[in-house]
Design a protein that fits this description.
219 residues; alpha+beta; Claudin; signal; transmembrane; membrane
């Protein structure tokens, strides 16, 4: 029962991780530049994401521009696009597999098949967490290095946006969920190796029965 509750808790964490991963991939605020200037009325906020760049004005107007050209983008943005999409796909596969493998569901067949499914789903969650953690770390490193660069003007410097923090937290949720699923299945398999199922043999009974038959033949 405790293992089933732990798996359910890991599944909830994985759900939060999947939704956060998708949101971080689509949000345009991976890096933010707030340029207030001399007049608060003309203040604008520039945001850059993986797929589009948006500009918010203090008057409430905003405009977004899609990034159509892939080859013109920096390497870290191209890598972030690829790995974040891969993280979303792996986490979605993990949700589908663990749904059939959890103890609280009636899918997935016998206990061994459900255990293998949970382990496979946990591996998917771990790979998804790593795939989401790498681009967010690389993207944050690029933002910080540009921010500390003295030759770059202040108006062109950015800070990490909400999408980066969402990606970090989502990757952490996926990693924790994957470790819990893999650990629960590993403990079950280890217990099966240490305590194999009892097999009942009755050699003495068989010998006595055979001896009885032999005595009758001689009578």
């Amino acid at each position: 029962m405790a293992s089933a509750s732990l798996q359910f808790f890991a599944f909830i964490l994985a759900l939060f991780g999947v939704f956060g991963d998708i949101a971080a991939t689509l949000l345009p605020n991976w890096k933010v530049n707030a340029d207030v200037g001399s007049n608060i009325i003309t203040a604008i906020t520039q945001m850059q994401g993986l797929w589009m760049d948006c500009t918010w004005y203090s008057t409430g107007m905003f405009s977004c521009t899609l990034k159509y050209s892939v080859l013109s983008l920096p390497v870290y943005i191209q890598a972030a696009r690829t790995t974040m999409v891969l993280s979303c796909i792996l986490s979605a596969f993990g949700i589908c597999i663990t749904t059939a493998g959890m103890k609280c569901t009636k899918l997935g067949g016998d206990s061994d098949s459900k255990s293998h499914a949970c382990f496979a789903g946990g591996v998917c969650f771990i790979l998804a967490g790593i795939s989401g953690l790498v681009p967010t770390s690389w993207y944050t490193r690029e933002i910080i290095s540009n921010f500390l660069e003295q030759t770059i003007p202040e108006s062109s410097k950015h800070e990490p946006g909400g999408a980066v923090y969402t990606g970090f937290i989502s990757s952490g949720f996926l990693l924790i969920a994957g470790v819990i699923f893999c650990a629960s299945c590993f403990k079950k398999q280890q217990g099966a190796w240490i305590y194999p199922p009892n097999q009942h043999y009755f050699p003495s009974t068989e010998q006595e029965s055979n001896a009885g038959y032999n005595l009758k033949d001689y009578v």
